[in-house]
Design brief:
By secondary structure, the protein is α/β, with parallel strands linked by helices. The protein contains 19 helices and 20 strands.
Length: 515
């Protein structure tokens, strides 16, 4: 049986200026369709996680001072993939058409009669200005703006810039990729009529927690940038609008701005904590110190899901346990109705949200998110003797025994069922953890469970306490803090509310109290 050959096509996608959340929804959708992703150096690595499983990811970018992948080779890769019937995402920093060579690639595709689509991205000057507290236009200060690249095609015999006009043509001037030539560029502006007292700013790594901003004037900005060690990628804004920065800056004043914070949560749970950290200006470094795996023996969980309606209480002590239980319920072709008369308890808000995703509202969420409080809350809510009460506890293979012991002591019959296992990280992850600490690139370590403590300490080996002492160590709650103490790890911050939100709030308060 023969069918029509699969038709290839190309998406030219703008990835935005750096912050992975500044990509458009359409670009993310197109990225997820691609069989081959060709991405540039300024594309945030987190965006690659949106590619579909099995997609080929190929780096084709460059950094200043490093050998560039020739455009001809990029073109060849696109054409070859399309002719094989593959969908190609050409993922470019900023906007594809704004000094991004996207138009050249589109011209090639048009000549070759290849279907393509262009998805615009947030342009770097728009983002850089906003994140630096500068408005490129302003009703009283600037009604015109020009974008100029400091690097032109090497095939040109001479610069296309007419500095006699360009220096004073607009009230705001944005110079791309000019960090290396900043002194000569400013001299040209002055030579052609721009006042040396005109405000100027250089912005490096715009929209990222590593963003740096140096402010001066046309006359001294080159010296100031050099003394500050400003490097690529950077752009320069010239004009009176730079004066707005003192009043409009908002990004680099965030409480955790620039802090590099290690997120040790499992990969599929790290995102929520990372987003909270980014909201406070931090740079999350996701290196999971724990893996979630199914139980060695699935039979007990299968049986518990079949008999869920026969229990008086079902108690969930983690989102992982809830997810595993309801996944098994779904695998059996059932849903929340099978719980029937059983009442449900969640140890905390995150677990309650996991239950809610399955269409179940927790009857109890104790104020204190630990086993002792759960046992007390259930005993109180049961309203009569716990004698004969049947309780299902789907949880990790290794967990504290205080909850089933307290419920059993109150007279209940407790079925503890292994819903999942926590495993140590893979060897490659261990190597990444060790390298990150040895390089001194971590400001804060977050622990969200005892397992993350144990696994990270094991990964770092004999030097664990020494390496962790160089950072701020933050724990999600007292149980995790106690585990750290037993391992010889000093904890600087323990969250009062045992959630990701509480952990981030505790970190904000910690750094706010420091001089």
């Amino acid at each position: 049986m023969s069918g029509a050959a699969k038709k290839g096509r190309v998406y030219l996608l703008g990835a935005g200026p750096g912050d992975p959340e500044l990509i458009t929804a359409r670009a993310l959708r197109r990225l997820a369709e691609a069989d081959l992703v060709l991405y540039d150096a300024l594309v945030h690595v987190d965006l690659l996680a949106h590619a579909k499983p099995g997609a080929e990811l190929v780096f084709v970018g460059k950094r200043a001072g490093r050998a560039a992948q020739r455009q001809a080779e990029i073109n060849a890769k696109m054409l070859e993939a399309v002719r094989e019937g593959r969908v190609v995402a050409r993922l470019k920093g900023g906007d594809p058409y704004l000094f991004g060579r996207g138009s050249e690639e589109a011209e090639l595709l048009a000549r070759e009669h290849i279907e393509f689509e262009v998805v615009p991205g947030v342009p770097s000057p728009i983002a850089a200005a906003a994140y630096a507290g500068i408005s490129l236009t302003h009703r009283e200060l600037a009604s015109s703006v020009a974008y100029v690249t400091a690097t032109e095609s090497i095939e040109k015999d001479e610069s296309a810039h007419d500095w006699t006009k360009l220096a004073t043509a607009t009230q705001t001037l944005v110079l791309f990729m000019g960090a290396r030539k900043l002194e000569s560029l400013m001299e040209r502006l002055v030579a052609h009529g721009r006042s040396p007292s005109t405000p100027a700013a250089v912005i490096q790594s715009a929209s990222l927690p590593s963003q740096r901003v140096v402010v001066g004037t046309v006359g001294d900005i080159a010296v100031r940038a050099r003394e500050a060690g400003i490097a690529m990628p950077a752009l320069t804004i010239v004009g009176d609008v730079v004066r707005l920065r003192d009043e409009l800056r908002w990004f680099d004043t965030k409480p955790l701005f620039g802090r590099r914070i290690l997120v040790t949560r499992p990969r599929d749970q790290a995102r929520a904590l990372s987003e909270l950290l980014r909201d406070e200006g931090a740079e999350p470094i996701e290196v999971p110190a724990i893996r979630i795996a199914p139980p060695d023996d699935a039979a007990p969980l299968e049986r518990a899901a079949r008999e869920a309606g026969s229990y008086d209480w079902i108690v969930f002590t983690s989102a992982n346990g809830a997810d595993a239980f309801f996944a098994e319920l779904a695998r059996q072709g059932a849903d929340a109705r099978r719980l029937a008369r059983a009442r449900v308890c969640a140890i905390g808000p995150a677990t309650a949200r996991a239950i809610a995703r399955a269409g179940v509202r927790a009857d109890i969420v104790p104020d204190e998110h630990r086993g002792e409080a759960v046992a007390e809350a259930i005993t109180r809510a049961h309203g009569r003797s716990m004698s004969g009460a049947r309780i299902l506890l789907p949880r990790a293979a290794v967990a504290r025994e205080v909850l089933p012991e307290m419920l059993g002591a109150a007279g209940a019959s407790v079925d503890v069922v292994v819903a999942y296992r926590t495993l140590a990280p893979e060897a490659s992850v261990v190597a990444r953890l060790a390298a990150a600490f040895e390089a001194g690139g971590i400001d804060v370590v977050t622990f969200t469970s005892s397992s993350t403590v144990d696994n990270l300490v094991d990964a770092l080996g004999a030097r664990a306490a020494e390496l962790l002492a160089r950072t701020v160590v933050a724990s999600i709650g007292p149980i995790t803090t106690e585990t750290a103490a037993r391992s010889g790890v000093r904890v600087d911050v323990t969250a009062a509310e045992y959630t990701a939100e509480g952990l981030v709030r505790a970190l904000v308060e910690h750094f706010a109290s420091r001089p």
